[in-house]
Amino acid sequence: MSRFDNYKTIIRLAIPIILANASAPLLGLVDTTTIGQTGTAADLGAIALATLVFSFVYWTFGFLRMGTTGFIAQANGREDREEVISVVYRSVLLGLIIGVLLILFQYFIGNLAIWLMSASQEVKALVKEYFYIRIWGAPATLITYALLGSLIGMGWTRQLLWVQLLLNGANILLNIVFVIGFKMGIKGIALGTLLAEWMALFYAWYLLSKHLKLTQPLQQLRNLWHRIIDRVQMTAIFKVNSDIMIRTFALLSGFAWFADQGAKFGDTTLAANHVLLQFVSMSAFFLDGFAHVSEMLSGKSIGAKDKVGFLKQIKESTLLAGFTAAFLGLAIIFLAPHMISIITKESQVQQIAQDYAVFAGIYILFSFVAFQLDGIFIGATRSKEMRNASIISLLVLIGIGLILTSLWDNTGLWLAFIIYIIARGTSLGLYMPKLIREIF
């Protein structure tokens, strides 16, 4: 076997994930561009904050994707097919329950989100319109998280690509139709996203059930019910999921704090930062492709008790991720001024975004370490370390950010954001020696 074969395998698994993930920020760019060309800075700011609200609402429960991947990959490494299927049903049922609860408590969640915002009343009113439409897609989105986690855990990355392409492709098409065709504004963005979320759920279930041969799901559910609700397994998944939920909440809090601080500098700065965050998101989803492969390969190696394979994939996937981060960061620095003018017609927003594009590029250059370590710890289902590292980095962001923003306004905010991503990687990396000692 050539020493490059493993790199080729990682790239082969990562490319569908990268393509799938890259379509998500493309959706954000299309949403931003559609509103940017037909609306005002307030509309752009509303899209920024409305998207952020759902990042909180949904990715607080991102454990349905991440936790599922780790448990599936380890069961697959042990060649325990019944446990693979049990994890799928366990995660799907959990996603359904949480999704229904979010709909039942939508008014409390929506009012709390609006109350916490520092934006203008005009922006808040637009965010409210968006929220109460899109929230009806909560069960679909959360169950889909569980299904995507299963696909990644099994290494079926091409099927993940088809689901994401359907979700984001339908979303883009529907948003263009509703916003440009029917002049529905921000309501059209919300409605298009809602419909696409339900379409993606049914397609993801079709693909997973086909590959796992879930021909009689109700019968399988009855046969495996005692295994699905096994006390030891339920305790393990709730422990991992609660830690990942706290970790995700802390990460989202970091981005929320960043957006909220930007809002304090005015709607124009809020809109400019949001434009740059679209580039950060696009790059992050590329890097997440390698992190997802690390999740699957790490979990499979742990399940098979293969320490050599575990260490080898860490080295190779991290090297590829580092080269990718360098390329993306430099691309943002040099190409952002040309891309910003396509996204928004507001000259003031363009100017501010161009002034701060270099900070977004530097953030990306440093970000790959945190992504790779997240993937390794997710595959190992070692959630406590992820939780602790995310809390530490959030405290670093807020502590340093308050000082730097008081000194240099938006420049200080971006400097604090760069320090934040470095702190994420460093704090999680300190746990690696202990992880390796304890799992092998």
Describe this structure in words.
With 440 residues, this protein is an all-alpha fold. It has one domain. It is 89% helix and 0% strand. It has helices spanning 5-38, 41-59, 63-77, 81-104, 106-116, 121-134, 138-154, 157-181, 186-212, 217-223, 225-228, 231-264, 267-303, 307-343, 347-355, 357-379, 383-429, 432-439. The longest helix has 47 residues, at 383-429. It is globular. The chain starts with a helix and ends with a helix. The model has no long low-confidence stretch (mean pLDDT 87).
Please describe the topology of this protein.
Elements: H1 5-38, H2 41-59, H3 63-77, H4 81-104, H5 106-116, H6 121-134, H7 138-154, H8 157-181, H9 186-212, H10 217-223, H11 225-228, H12 231-264, H13 267-303, H14 307-343, H15 347-355, H16 357-379, H17 383-429, H18 432-439
Number of strands: 0
Low-confidence stretches: none
Radius of gyration: 21 Å
SSE order, one letter for each helix or strand: HHHHHHHHHHHHHHHHHH
SSE class? mainly alpha
How many domains comprise the coordinates?
1
The overall pLDDT, averaged over residues, is 87
Shape: globular
What percent of residues are in strands? under 5%
Number of helices: 18
How far apart lie the N and C ends?
A: 25 Å
Fraction of helical residues: over 70%
Q: Which sheet architecture does the biggest sheet show?
A: none
Keywords:
18 helices, 440 residues
